[in-house]
């Protein structure tokens, strides 16, 4: 487990603890802040997993990744050019 994953798990666990403490103490603000921190940790984990999967796929199939990047760049450029042409009218 690298540091990115460790921070995500730590945020999730800390948020869970804060949420439970808020519920036990009857402090809804603390409970809500803990729930938010817990969701932040879960979203960090999902983002880290997606980044790892992307990195692995690019390493396994670099030409496919290059082709996909070129296609996305072409599509963005075409959309920008169409939008630019409309604003000049």
From TrEMBL:
InterPro entries: YjbJ_sf. It comes from the Bacteria. The keyword Membrane applies. It comes from Paraburkholderia guartelaensis. Keywords: Membrane, Transmembrane, Transmembrane helix. The keyword Transmembrane helix applies. This is CsbD family protein. The chain crosses the membrane at residues 63-82. The lineage of its organism: Bacteria, Pseudomonadati, Pseudomonadota, Betaproteobacteria, Burkholderiales.
